[in-house]
Amino acid sequence: MEYVIEMLNIRKEFGNFVANDNITLQLRKGEIHALLGENGAGKSTLMNVLFGLYQPEGGEIRVRGKKVAITDPNVANELGIGMVHQHFMLVENFTVTENIILGNEPTKGGSLNISAAAKKVAELSKQYGLNVDPYAKIEDISVGMQQRVEILKTLYRGAEILIFDEPTASLTPQEIMELITIMRKLIKEGKSIILITHKLQEIMDVSDRVTVIRKGKGIGTVITSESSPEELASLMVGRQVIFKTEKGPAHPTDEVLAVKDLVVTDSRNVEKVKGLNLSVRRGEIVGIAGIDGNGQSELIEAITGLRKTKSGSVSINGKDITNKRPRQVTESGVGHIPQDRHKHGLVLDFPIGYNIALQTYYQKPLSKGGIIDYKAIDRFAEQIIEQYDVRTQGAHEPARALSGGNQQKAIIGREVERDPDLLIAALPTRGLDVGAIEFIHRRLIEQRDSGKAVLLISFELDEVMNVSDRIAVIYDGAIIDTVKPLETDEQELGLLMAGHSRKEAAAMQAEEGDDKHVQ
Amino acid sequence: MTSMSNRMINILVPVISVILGLLVGAIVMVVSGYDPVKGYIALWNGIFGDSYAIGETIRQITPYILAGLAVAFAFRTGLFNIGVEGQLIVGWFAAVYVGAAFDLPKVIHLPLAILAGAAAGALWAFLPGLLKAKMKIHEVIVTIMMNYVALYVVNALIKTWSGGGDKTERIKETASLRSDFLASITDYSRLHYGIILALLMVVLMWFLLEKTTTGFELKAVGFNENASEYAGMKIGKNIILAMVISGAFAGLAGAMEGLGTFGNMYTRGGFTGIGFDGIAVALLGANTPLGVIFGAVLFGSLKYGALNMPNAAQIPEEIVQIVIALVIFFVACGYAIRLLLSKISKKKEAK
Q1: What are phi and psi of A274, to 5 degrees?
Q2: What is the spatial distance between Cα A497 and Cα A302, in angstroms, rounded to a whole number?
Q3: Which residue of A177, B16, B91, B189 has the smallest Cβ count within 10 Å?
């Protein structure tokens, strides 16, 4: 079997810390090879070694059988290695073509030759079925399309080996399906792919083989078709992982959150929530399923007081909180795990301890008469850190220095500890690994079981299906249907999320059969 | 280990900056044909030469501390107050006005005049704060423009008040910060009680920022408005409050000049420069209250001591200004020096 890339016994150290310890990864020509590991397991380090950003302390790299020294990213480019970054490196107000040629601009007699480049971009786009308009501006196209521009960028530079770093993190289910199709097409055209991810379902869906690393060590390579998500998860985490989050039946009682005929506009004054009705009761988790941009953000912001409503009402425990200030909403019993933890959830330059106190710093016992008791804050923070397993060097470490999972655990600790009647969790597991996801799901269910109401907003169908007791499907600013997770499946939900009624969905499913999506 | 060396670096950076500034200043003096040794001896004597010099140096340091606090406080809360100069000018005028226009016992008159200075500065900073909070107009632009407004409005007020003259009445003795005692121990310098007030304000800023819920909110809003709003803080209120407190410090700096050093105010052709130097003072002190004292001592000393260089060492005023500017320049380059230091310490660690 021919290998296009062999990374043999790679070792990378940072001071005393061994980030990669004896890792071997062999990429065959024409395969999709998944690189699986938890956050901080050393995936990025390994890929940065391959991309020439780090020099390994041990081991060797062979490209097409020849030993090479990749001293910087330019060498990697020349060897035909291209990286599709998780966070797109695109200039928003440039066109697709301008972005693709950036740093490598073709010139004719000293002036930029855009049209030649655009032609080449169009050709590549057609060849790989990417469907990208070379003249579209980045700010005008969807996230999925932007990712395809990133793919085009590597192809334009002649990449034969593509590294995809967490490519599905910000995509909708439909966009993920499209991406998988594109990846298959790339393989057909003779490219080889390394897929970095910690989402097991994707690996099962698309990869040929999987290399698992755990805490910097290479655990081994398995053939995907001979493995299972359960096996992969335990290889990755090093213990058995419970997948289907275990939970008993829900026993909903009194209504906590009541949203009636809510209309909310976005910052450009376009109506995003259009007469939405929603009810969440004690002892149940209601999941809001929908494609990004259908009014979820505006709905949460309106409930939590971050955005003014145009009409309609929001009440908590029968008390009207429409257009109340965030603190009044918080104090009437709402906990909020915000969608964007860096923008809303944390003051990144503050110590993690201050962040844990961010909602309660003005109350006893953390402060008295306007004077803060920082020792009390430290004690409180240490308690949350301990209880919610936040891995940090201590309460004084800046929030910025923590990994995403640990930042999120701190936020959850802060919100849950206030004992709110309603807990709003917006994309609570975005970008987190299996261990952290499991932890967070358990906490949400614990809240439910202790008689709280939980509202979960997620773009991940798995999550909505696993955790919620009822699923409210949001489409174009309204809840178009409410289904029970046990009485539906991903296809029906997908169709509902695209705006079809349940009847239409049933008809379409009957027509298409079940062969399209392998569960 | 790392935090220890970090602290070392924090102390070393300003010290090295000053030394580099003086070294390059010496080169400038040599190239221009003057004796740097003589020059720096004159500088030293100008600062510490006798009790009069020391008294005047401390007098000079006083407004620098307050101007530095004003800038540092704004920086710590995410704002850049370039309007300290204008706030200082209105504070100066308001203090002198109250000091001259009323007849009151000292226990009321002096505090009232000082408060008037603080209030005027606060009011002058309130407007840019309000514009930023309500309409997102950047405070830098508004405060720069308000410096000019302050300068010319105050000039016009002085002319009107004095019936066409170029200076105000003198303040009443009951509003003065001067003291016979301080004058007598410093060979009749203009040293006044303002330095005590300035040091109290240093403690106040520290207390406000590090101990109170208000300080917690101000800092949080300065770092991340979105997260602060999410956590229930009032963004607009905090921005305005931060500007008002900063402006009050600046107004106090002006009151020191009016009630202490000069006892009156005169029309000015240009800015005092203290407000702008406050930016450098704050940067030099890493925007911490204690650091501001350090920065102000350096600035006040250089500014006052330098006056002796033309007399004692025949070094022209212009060269002296260049030397001072070089010190500021190297202080502003603190980042580069920090980088250098951390590289050196890393190399040592590697060995």
Answers
A1: -120, 85
A2: 22
A3: A177
How far is the C-alpha of B45 from the C-alpha of A476, rounded, in Å? Answer: 77
End-to-end Cα distance, chain A: 30
Cβ pair B70, B253 in contact under 8 A: yes
Cβ atoms of A194 and A169 within 8 Å: the answer is no
* CA distances for B102 relative to A118, A515, B93, B179, B329, angstroms: 78, 93, 14, 20, 45
H or E element in which residue A127 lies? helix A114-127
Choose among A344, A358, A370: nearest Cβ to B214: A370
Q: Which two tokens stand for residue A224?
A: 């995907």
Q: What stretch of H or E contains A320? A: strand A319-320
pLDDT at A162: 93
Residues 6+ apart with CB under 8 A from A170: A143
Residues of B whose CB is below 8 A from A372: 211-213, 215-216
- Distances, alpha carbon A501 to alpha carbons A479, A483, A486, A504, B282, in Å: 11, 12, 18, 5, 63
A130 backbone dihedrals φ, ψ, rounded to 5°: -90, -20
User: Nearest Cα to B94, choosing from B248, B235, B251?
Assistant: B251
User: A13 — phi, psi (to 5°)?
Assistant: -115, 145
Cβ distance of B230 and A372 shorter than 8 Å: no
Does the CA dihedral B193-B194-B199-B200 come out positive or negative? Answer: positive
Report the 10 Å Cβ neighbour count for A252. Answer: 19
In single-letter form, the type of residue at position A173 comes to P
- Residue from A336, A303, A508 nearest A414 by CA: A336
The DSSP 8-state label assigned to residue A138 in this structure reads G
Whole-angstrom distance, CA of residue A405 vs CA of residue A390: 8
Kindly determine whether residue A345 and residue B227, on different chains, have CB atoms separated by under 8 Å. Answer: yes
Partners of B212 on chain A (C-beta within 8 Å) are 370-372
Nearest to B230 among A326, A348, A354 (CB): A326
Contact by Cβ (8 Å): B59, B260: yes
* Rounded distance between C-alpha atoms, residue A479 and residue A256, angstroms: 18
Give the residue on B whose Cα is nearest the Cα of A364: B213
DSSP assignment string, A426-463 = ESTTTT--HHHHHHHHHHHHHHHHTT-EEEEEES-HHH
Query: Tokens for B54?
Result: 């020391």
Average pLDDT value for residue range B203-224: 95
User: Is the pTM value of this prediction over 0.80?
Assistant: no
Token couple for B145: 């423009």
Taking the Cβ of residue A380 and every Cβ of chain B, the question of whether any pair is shorter than 8 Å is answered with no
Reported ipTM exceeds the 0.95 cut: no
Cβ partners under 8 Å of residue B343, min gap 6: none
Contact B223 A325 (CB under 8 A): no
Beta-sheet strand order (sheet of A209-214): A66-68, A58-63, A3-14, A17-28, A217-223, A209-214, A32-36, A192-197, A161-165, A81-84
Q: Give A284-309 pLDDT, tens digit per residue.
A: 999 999 887 889 999 999 999 999 99
